[in-house]
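Hello forum,

I keep getting stuck at the same step: I have a sequence, I want structure tokens, and every attempt I make locally crashes halfway through. Rather than fight my setup again tonight, could one of you with a working pipeline run this one for me? It's a single chain of 215 residues.
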Amino acid sequence: MKASRIIIASLLLLLALPAAAQKYACVNTDYVLKNIPDYANAQKRLDKYVEGWQAELVEKQAELDQMQAEYEQESYLLPDNLKKRRQEEIKAKAQAIRDLQQQRFGAGGDLDKKRAELLKPVQDRVYAMIERVANEKNYAFVFDKAGSPTVLFANKKYDISNEVLELLGHKPGATPEPEPETKAKRPANPEMRSPDRRQNARNMPARGQNNNARK
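Reply #2:
Ran it on my machine without issues. Output:
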């Protein structure tokens, strides 16, 4: 809703400006980025890191499950002091997994840092070229069509996406621009979103503590 209000306010401002100043364009940053090999390679490298972190979490979770299963099998034979120590070990292991999840996938964690390291330089180059085109052609506003449901129609005459690609030294059209229906379902910054599997890893519960509560 906030983004919609901002865009509506911008459009109202455009209408209020003199006719000579009402010069604007649009760009699809999703389309531009998909046609830059450096960005695709950076995304693949980021995915490799994510896969490794997920495998690490799966391994830690398997260790926790094994600890819990062994404790449940042996607990009736253990004296109270050993039961308490094993329970504390399981609890500590579960907490360590949660901490690792936060370190890898939490806000400001390893995933965010790697995104900034690998993807942001390419994004910055794209935004610099958008700014260059806007300044050279005296555009007051440049709207991003990528995933914004408020952009219901954009005349290709005013779309500078291919011009930005050419300035970056890449051939336009290697990856077709998505249809409007597809774009409307995407977040406004597709280059910043995570694959579903990253979200799953971020939300993967650390089992064991609930079982401890029953003990």
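The beta strands are 24-27, 141-144. If your local run keeps crashing, start a new thread with the error log.
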